[in-house]
Each structure stands twice: as C-alpha cells, then as structure tokens.
From TrEMBL:
Subcellular location as annotated: Endoplasmic reticulum
Enzyme Commission no: 2.4.1.221
Keyword Endoplasmic reticulum: yes
A cellular component term, taken from the record's GO annotations: endoplasmic reticulum
Family: Belongs to the glycosyltransferase 68 family.
Name of the protein: GDP-fucose protein O-fucosyltransferase 2
Domain of life: Eukaryota
Signal peptide positions on this chain: 1-18
Annotated keywords: Carbohydrate metabolism, Endoplasmic reticulum, Fucose metabolism, Signal, Transferase
Length: 430
C-alpha cells in the first residue's frame, strides 16, 4: 500500500505518464562543446526508426545516433541530437504518443555524452520546420560483387514515397504524430556501413544543412559494438530517477530486499564508474524475462512453452536456494496465472510489477531495473529486452555467470548447446 501511495504523491508533483508540450519555455544545453568552435552555427540532427521496431531496439539506435553526433562534434560541427518522442509502440497497450525522453530517462546524464534536446524543445527553436529529410535505404542490387563493403551514395528513392508526400513547395511525413511540420527537401541515401560512414556522407552531401532528419536510422550499424564508446553511451542512458526509486521501493517492500546487502555499485554520475571486481550480489530472488506473443512465431526454435519455462525456473531457483521469482513478460494474463500456479506447487512465489499509475513504457523500465538487480537472471534468447537487462547488470558489476543465461526451448536438453543456445557474453569495457 505504501508503494502506491508514494507513486500517487510522486505523480502529483512530477507526472511521468504524459506531459504538456508548452511546459518548457527555454531550451538549455549543458554539454561542453569539445572541439566545436563557438563561431560555428548550431545544427540539429533528428532521426526516426522503422515504425515496427520496438522500445529496446530503438534504445540501441539512439546509441548509434549519439555516436554519430559525437563524431561530427569531434570534427568541429556544432550538432545537437534531437530526441525522437516515443509513441504508439507495439508492446505499449496504452498506445501513448508524443512521450518525451525525460519522462523515461535521465536526460541530464545523457547530455553528459552529447548535447540532447527533446523534439518539443526543438520546435521552439525551429517552429515546425526541417531543412532536409535523409531517407536511408539499402542498395537495390544488394552487396557489390556479392561482398559487403562500406559505401554510400545519393540514389533514387525505393520506398520513401510510402511515408512522404509533396504538398506544394514542401514535403509532409509522419514526424512523430506532430502535425504541420514542413520539410524543405527529401533525399534518399543508399548506404552500407556504420555511424562513421553516415558521418562521411553528411560531410560530403550536407555540409551546411542546419537541420537534418535521418529516417530509417536503424540502417547503419555500430562503429564498434561492445567497445569503449558503446559502453560510455550505454552508461549515460540512465533511467529516470523516479522510475529507479519506484523499482527499488518495490524490491524493498514487496520482495523484502535488504538494499545494504546488494553490494551493487552505481555512482551518482555515470562518468565516475570504474572497472571493479564483480562484487554485486543482488536481491535474494531470481529474475526471469519470458518473451511471448510475436516471439512464439518469429523465434519458435528458441522460445519454450510455459511448462518448459516453469521446469527451468524451478530447477534454477532450487539450485540457488531462492524461493522468490520476479517475472517480467508480455504473456497473456491467463498464461501468467498458469505459470504462477506451477511455481507455487514447488513452493516458489512469483511476483510481478503491475500498476495503472504510470505508462507502459515506464513500467517496462521499472521491470528491467528490478530484474537487473536480482541475484540471478534468466532471459529470452535474442530478445532486446533481455539484452538491456544484461547490460544494466554489467554496469552494476554482477558476475558473468549470473547474467548471461537464457531459457531453453527443451527443458530436458538444457545442457545440450545444440538445442539450448546461450547468449553471447558482451562484457563491459572502460
């Protein structure tokens, strides 16, 4: 009861469900300009991702764009990264739209890597106007000579006309559900490469464009997946302080975790994080991410049925002598009740975080934070939701063996690597 009373009072002070587009009168950027000359005009880089991509993949694309802006600034270009509002995502049952990043993430922490502003702040500086949309696309003919190679060039659009239309002198597009945004020009860029490849294209084709909108930003890949800069960006993507507080309060009051015995290392400022021994213990519960819905079709070779999942959860919990299991899942309610019944039959109590006080996006981050602080984590193979939890555990210095584990399709073959592929161990570097 105390948890929900606190959440209710918290929302009265600073709501994290919705927001007022006119709430900010000034646009402030605290990031130091690095190699950027003060005489350089401020430029803005906006981006969007394929409509069907989910929350956690979009978080990964942000990292690629942050890397892009960081490189452009290192080259002396005064770019600011404009954060695309969240909205209408597949797993968000509330179908919320125009959700700013500062409802879900600590944008001050993000701002310590590259300067970022919200889209509604951008509109105050450039009222409903974008200079150029650069629509990224793959090469129509595929790889050159059947081999992958870094390359880019302006080409005729292959599918951009599905999403943009010409109205008089200007172009119109989706633009995060914001109406009346005018686009001066649209070009299509065929590209194979990394964020640095896109930086080269911007320098060559758009050297003086003030506002660049990169669409289908997921087309480019990381410069160095799992490298030092990757982890700097990932560490800067801290969840909103209120969401972390709600998650920790749930752990204390529902899971009965003693926070002083966690041994979790998490400095106030991510830039103060250092390479340390893997000393984190976590709370005395097992965390499980059980992916269902579309994964039952698209990843049928790896996703276990409920009975198989229950057998594995029970086995791991018993080996670890844990009687509490925290479950985060997109399963239907009747499936979850069935799973809980099976766990209860083995004297294991299942817990879930549920509330209507905050948005679906906020709930997913609370889920991830609770799961990340468990004594042991079992994820779903290839799920980006599970990836993000493992990254959080790496940041908090958990042992590798308690982090990189996935549920198996066949419980009876858990020890068979051919039928039970475990996640790659992408460990943190500093």
């Amino acid at each position: 009861m105390r948890l929900w009373l606190y959440v209710s009072l918290l929302l009265l002070v600073n709501p994290i469900y919705g927001y007022d587009e006119d709430e900010a009168d000034e646009v402030t950027i605290s990031k130091k300009p690095e190699n950027v000359s003060p005489a350089k005009p401020q430029r803005y880089l906006l981006y969007e991702v394929n409509f069907g991509e989910g929350f956690n993949l979009r978080r990964d694309v942000y990292m690629r764009m942050a890397s892009l802006v960081h490189e452009l600034r290192e080259q002396g270009h005064n770019f600011v990264l404009v954060l695309p509002p969240w909205g209408n995502l597949y797993h968000w049952n509330d179908r919320a739209k125009k959700v700013p990043w500062n409802n879900l993430f600590d944008t001050e922490a993000m701002n310590a890597y590259v300067p970022v502003i919200e889209f509604y702040e951008y509109l105050k500086v450039n009222p409903y106007y974008v200079d150029e949309v650069v629509y990224l696309q793959h090469y129509k003919e595929g790889w050159k000579d059947g081999k992958w190679s870094e390359r880019y060039e302006k080409r005729d659009c292959i599918e951009a006309d599905k999403y943009y239309r010409k109205e008089g002198k200007f172009w119109k597009g989706y633009m995060y559900s914001y109406d009346h945004v005018k686009i001066h020009n649209l070009t299509c860029l065929s590209i194979q490469g990394e964020s640095s490849t896109l930086a080269k294209a911007i320098n060559e084709y758009y050297p003086n464009t003030n506002t660049l909108f990169i669409d289908r930003a997921e087309t480019v890949i990381h410069n160095e997946y799992g490298g030092v800069e990757y982890w700097k960006i990932r560490r800067s993507m801290r969840y909103h302080k209120q969401l972390r507080f709600i998650a920790d309060l749930f752990r204390q009051e529902t899971l009965y975790v003693n926070m002083h015995e966690d041994k979790i290392v998490y400095p106030k400022d991510w830039r103060d994080e250092r390479e340390l021994q893997r000393v984190a213990v976590g709370g005395d519960y097992l965390a499980v991410h059980l992916r269902r819905k579309d994964f039952l079709r698209s990843h049928s070779d790896h996703v276990p049925d409920l009975n198989e999942a229950a057998l594995q959860i029970i086995e791991v919990a018993q080996v670890l002598e844990l009687s509490k299991v925290f479950i985060c899942s997109d399963a239907d309610e009747y499936e979850l009740l069935d799973l809980e019944k099976q766990l209860n039959s083995s004297s294991i109590t299942a817990y879930r975080f549920t509330t209507k006080k905050i948005s679906d996006g906020a709930i997913s981050l609370v889920d991830q934070w609770i799961a990340a602080k468990a004594a042991f984590f079992l994820g779903t193979h290839t799920s980006t939701f599970s990836y993000r939890i493992r990254e959080d555990r790496e940041i908090m210095h958990f042992p590798v063996e308690t982090t990189f584990n996935s549920l198996c399709k066949y419980a009876k073959d858990m020890g068979n690597p051919k039928k039970c592929e475990q996640p790659a161990k992408w460990t943190i570097v500093y």
